[in-house]
Write a structure and sequence with these properties.
The structure holds three protein chains of three kinds. By secondary structure, chain A is an all-alpha fold. Helix content of chain A is 72%, strand content 2%. The relative contact order of chain A is 0.18. In chain C, a hairpin with a 2-residue loop joins strand 4 and strand 5. Classes of the chains: A mainly alpha, B mainly alpha, C alpha/beta. Chains in contact: A-B, A-C.
């Protein structure tokens, strides 16, 4: 299928999804359910942007949750301390997170897989410890309270009220869908092709004229930007943020989302996020065993299906249809060791 | 005076860090596995020792039994999970170890509960040249040093030690020479796990330990390993002592809330200056 | 041979820890020639390629490509200047299709539609047209070698470094490869070739450079090298008949 047809198909799919999601509050009034969907929406942004880093350059980053936190605190503090509107706080959050992400990337991306993980974990933890210890600014372990909902806006004569569950839900869904579409467009672009080449064979990609260092930093920074935006949305939805939302356990949980669904695909992070957030909610009765099952599941998936659910299906598909030219996505497979620098 | 006191305290903490780190660096260096569940082995060692001592068992014996129990768990981990993951699929190994860590941690919570435990021994102190140290801590250091010396003898003087080093250098050649590399790997993992258990048993005699206490020691073991050079036992010991010293000095002179940050900042600084670690064997 | 000097290597040395892999190597590659590099295993041939393509930095010495000193340049920059290389172990992008593989070589040089067009052309040129949509890892080693060459050509090189392209090829395939490589200078691509297969070397190379234990052993046209007693002793072995 040629490129412009593919593009049209994807955009239509995105639009349809958006419309369907917008309809949901008309059928579902349960606020709890909407909250779960909101969390899924926010984490889809996180997981998809993390996937840009993990799935397309092959490096496992535990710093992503910290960028989420930076976005949340930036936007939250601008709102509570300076009265700055969400609509300005959001881009600010993205920008600050991107800058921090860029610096972290400069340090961490020099190293190969193992140490990269450790460095991102360390830097992520340092950032969280700053949230925790800088009490005058961030409120310390008690967190930041009273972050207001986004201010109402008027579009085409209709006023959009974000203080209602339906209102904020719709906003989050719009952000989620737009983020996924943007990331999809990036992956389809020349940048995305370079990232895939880097994942497949970093050394050889360099010899094809691809500036590997540049692209790794680029994907890392873009990923951080989206994480920051997700953070801002999160802060203004919840109204309250605390350092504990951004600790290592959360960092690990976040990494699992694209992984369970299938890294290196667009649908993977969405499915993984959906599963990892909704299932625990619906299996409340098993709450005590949740993490135990999660751990066990993770080990089993690595042993049996390292490409995640979507990846396993895709692998099968590619093999069966070897005659068809499919340029959209490449299945993940197990991540290879990358040499640093 | 404060300074000397802090140095001595660092020796105590550092001995425990060293046992953790040596176990980790052995497993990383020889099996090329980053076992993020190392902390859970540590915790099991602590709990086993705690319950045995509570049942009236002599501390040293409890320590040895704890090491044995955890060695068996380590064996199961290696043979049951890690063996089946390709060495090159580095991140898969890491994720699997995360899975094991999550699983074990939560099993511990289910079995032992979330509360902390600690072995309360005598708090008799002795005064050495003006420095106060409890007997317990002194014994702790002696035990740790003994374990390290025994390990050193094992690695340098026995046939097993030679087979170990051969497997680390070139598994294929080692196999050709008749060494059962599968068995060596399993035993090495068990040994590394036993060291983690020893660290746990020793720590629980001075500090409370809970089911979730494993993560931070494991991370520090990882950091020390990178600092000291992967596979280097000397590096692990030096790194452990230095880290303990840095933490104690920071807690003593600045503020204790920043202690945990030290390890991370430590790592980042070291890597920026010497990417191969201080005793760098090439990290891959 | 006279003509424009494309690659000028001066006195490069490379040591790893205690091992001196390259010891004072100097050579020049002229435009539109096919230069062969031979030598026993461990002679330093691949290390040499690594040092001139930016993968490794020489411990000392200089490398000039088209007049510019490239010693401090990263591989991607050297590639953009016009040097491409292949690797001994058939390095390609395993899960991408053949077409996508070649398109990677065209990255950043033209738009996507043009990339597809050129990649299809190159795939046909190297004889992989029927397999363009297969994952590259499914190709047998000989075809992977051709794929590497196609990817290298996609980067529009003035100098193409080939590291044992004939390895694992049948005699028929080797002959096709030889004809193929011999044509390249006519298209404006200079070739520098590491090979163990003497047929290939003797038949298509304009000049040959012999390495042994990191040092230059001999340099000259095939006839000279064939009859050079030092070379015969160290490498070809007595009894080699042209």
């Amino acid at each position: 299928m040629n490129r412009s047809a593919e593009l049209k198909r994807g955009l239509i799919l995105g639009l349809v999804t958006l419309v369907v999601l917008m309809m949901v509050p008309f059928m579902v009034a349960d606020e709890y359910l909407l909250t779960v969907l909101n969390m899924i929406g926010i984490y889809v942004i996180l997981a998809s942007s993390l996937n840009l880093i993990v799935g397309y350059t092959g490096q496992l980053s535990f710093a992503h949750i910290a960028f989420f936190g930076i976005g949340a605190y930036t936007s939250g503090l601008l709102g509570t301390k300076l009265g700055i509107s969400f609509w300005l706080g959001l881009p600010a959050a993205g920008a600050v997170a991107a800058i921090v992400g860029f610096v972290v990337g400069l340090i961490a991306l020099r190293f190969g897989s193992h140490i990269f993980v450790l460095v991102t974990l360390s830097l992520g933890e340092i950032i969280r410890l700053v949230f925790y210890n800088w009490v005058e600014l961030t409120g310390g372990p008690d967190g930041l309270f009273g972050i207001s909902r986004p201010e109402n806006i008027s579009l085409l004569g209709i006023t959009w009220d974000f203080s209602t569950p339906a209102g904020i839900y719709r906003l989050i869904m719009i952000f989620a869908v737009i983020s996924v579409i943007i990331i999809w467009l990036i992956v389809r672009s020349s940048v995305g092709r370079a990232l895939i080449a880097i994942r497949e064979n970093e050394t050889f990609a360099e010899f094809c004229g691809i500036n590997v260092w540049f692209y790794k930093n680029l994907s890392f920074t873009i990923g951080a930007l989206f994480a920051g935006i997700a953070g801002s949305v999160y802060a203004h939805f919840f109204g309250y943020i605390a350092p504990s939302s951004f600790n290592t356990m959360e960092a690990i949980y976040l990494v699992l989302m694209p992984f369970f669904g299938g890294i290196g695909t667009i649908a993977g992070p969405i499915i993984g996020t959906f599963l990892l957030i909704s299932l625990p909610e619906f299996l409340r009765v098993l709450a005590d065993y949740r993490m135990t099952i999660m751990g066990l599941l993770l080990v089993l998936i690595i042993l049996i299906m390292p490409q995640g659910i979507v990846g396993a299906i895709q692998s099968l598909y590619i093999r069966l249809k070897a005659g068809r030219s499919s340029r959209a996505e490449i299945s993940a497979g197990s991540i290879r060791v990358n040499r640093g620098g | 005076m404060l300074f000397i006191q802090l140095v001595v305290d660092s020796l105590v903490l550092g001995s425990i860090y060293a046992l953790m780190a040596i176990g980790f660096t052995m497993i990383f260096g020889i099996l090329h596995i980053i076992n993020l569940a190392h902390g859970e082995l540590f915790v099991l060692g602590a709990f086993t020792a705690f319950f045995l001592v509570g049942a009236g068992v002599n501390f040293i014996l409890a320590l040895l039994i704890a090491m044995l129990v955890v060695a068996i768990l380590g064996l199961i981990m290696e043979r049951g999970v890690y063996r089946f993951i390709k060495k090159e699929a580095v991140l898969n190994t890491m994720l699997a170890s995360i899975g094991l860590s999550l699983f074990l941690q939560n099993v511990y919570i289910l079995i032992f509960g979330p509360q902390t435990q600690q072995i309360y021994g005598s708090t008799e102190t002795i005064n050495l040249l003006g420095i106060i140290i409890t007997w317990q801590r002194l014994i702790l250091v002696i035990i740790a040093v003994t374990v390290v010396i025994l390990l050193n003898l094992l690695v340098k003087r026995t046939w097993f030690g030679k087979a170990l080093r051969a497997t680390a250098l070139d598994p294929q050649v080692a196999q050709l020479m008749g060494i059962d590399t599968g068995r060596i790997r399993a035993v090495t993992f068990a040994l590394g796990s036993a060291l983690a258990a020893a660290a746990g048993a020793l720590l629980v005699s001075i500090i409370p330990v809970s089911a979730t206490s494993g993560f931070i020691p494991a991370t520090k073991a990882f950091i020390i390993t990178i600092f000291g050079g992967i596979g280097s036992i000397t590096g692990a010991i030096v790194g452990a002592l230095l880290l303990a010293l840095a933490e104690n000095l920071a807690a003593g002179y600045i503020a204790s809330s920043y202690t945990n940050m030290i390890a991370y900042a430590f790592l980042v600084l070291v890597l920026l200056i010497r990417p191969d670690g201080i005793f760098g064997r090439r990290s891959f | 041979m006279t003509g424009e000097v494309l690659l000028d290597v001066r006195n490069i040395k490379k040591h790893f820890g205690g091992v001196q892999a390259l010891d004072d190597i100097s050579m020049q590659v002229f435009k539109n020639e096919i230069l062969g590099i031979i030598g026993p295993n461990g002679a330093g041939k691949t290390t040499f390629f690594n040092c001139i393509s930016g993968y490794l930095q020489p411990s000392s010495g200089e490398v000039f490509f088209m007049g510019k000193s490239i010693i401090k340049y990263k591989p991607h920059r050297i590639n953009r200047m016009g040097m491409a290389r292949t690797f001994q172990n058939g390095a390609i992008f395993p899960r991408m299709t053949v077409l996508e593989n070649i398109m990677t070589g065209l990255h950043g040089r033209c738009n996507a539609r043009e990339q597809i067009r050129r990649a299809e052309y190159l795939a046909e040129y190297v004889g992989l047209a029927e397999r363009v949509n297969e994952p590259a890892m499914d190709l047998p080693h000989g075809l992977q070698s051709r794929l590497q060459i196609a990817i290298g050509l996609a980067t529009n090189p003035k100098l193409l470094l080939l590291d044992e392209p004939a390895a694992g090829m049948s005699p028929d395939e080797t002959r096709d490869l030889m004809d193929f490589i011999a044509e390249l200078p006519n298209m404006g691509v200079t070739v520098c070739l590491i090979e163990h297969n003497m047929d290939v070397i003797m038949n298509i190379c304009n000049r040959i450079f012999v390495l042994n234990l990191g040092r230059k052993l001999a340099e000259g046209v095939p006839e000279e090298i064939k009859s050079n007693p030092e070379v015969i002793k160290a490498y070809l072995g007595r009894g080699y008949v042209a």
